[in-house]
């Protein structure tokens, strides 16, 4: 495993960090409070190559590795975890079309996704089928050269603002083999959206139901052939799990950085908090946990890049470890800030709220443990 960053790697990450510090961080709390989805700022990120990080270059992508991506999403999340998370989801949509789509589909949909002139959303979860994705009931029935989609998707990030929806729908019998991935344009007749959900965190990102009421799209919008949707979804989740872990890592790093500033400035009982041994031990442990999480994440990303035999297990394990570690580091940072950590203006409580959902989405951490256990038992 290579931890050394090249000169080019450092240049990319320095640029991303500068962007996050200038474009995300100063506005993150305000966006959260006003539930503002800053599409204009996201398009600035796309202009720097962050709208299609690991999409091929012939359709406008950056052509980078998964290892590059987790480093980029960590730096973006240092400015705002929720905006970094949306960029991760948008990138998943673009990757699915790039990887499994026909060449005509790639050239039709990806150039505008790469620039984020069009935003993308991924529609897998349903009201009655959360972690059990293979039990989804949204149907796509063939009618000549069209598919007619009917069903409801739940907790869809970007819904109502996106222009392209990759929808997992049942075209065959029960189980994974009956699921197909379909591209649905945002202006399709019969497509509607629920109210913006009232959430604990991720408030700058709209989250709505996606309602498909007889939505008609061409059969040509099927990605990867009929019956391959579940495989596409699961492969997409490998990268999604790494990216959301990276977003937790970025939030945790910012919380630690702010904590170090706070304990250096704040005095209690006649001395700076930073001189207290218990505080020193606490921030040291936070740093240790972040370093361990980062190393684990990079290892899993490299395994995905190399198509290693244990990539699924490592992606699941890294997602579980890094999202829980990140959340714990931020919770510790809030405790170090005392009452000030509980105040909105310090930004720590916002990071905590944003990171809490990372332990649920892209497969709950309980499911991640099941994935790891099954892999171990299978290879024993």
Automatic annotation (TrEMBL):
Recorded GO MF terms: acyl-CoA dehydrogenase activity; flavin adenine dinucleotide binding
Catalytic function, reaction form: a 2,3-saturated acyl-CoA + A = a 2,3-dehydroacyl-CoA + AH2
Superkingdom assignment: Bacteria
PROSITE patterns linked to this entry: ACYL_COA_DH_1, ACYL_COA_DH_2
Pfam family name, one: Acyl-CoA_dh_M
Record-linked SUPFAM superfamilies: Acyl-CoA dehydrogenase C-terminal domain-like, Acyl-CoA dehydrogenase NM domain-like
Residue span, Acyl-CoA oxidase/dehydrogenase middle domain: 122-215
Occurrences of domain Acyl-CoA dehydrogenase/oxidase C-terminal (ranges): 227-376
Record's protein name: Acyl-CoA dehydrogenase
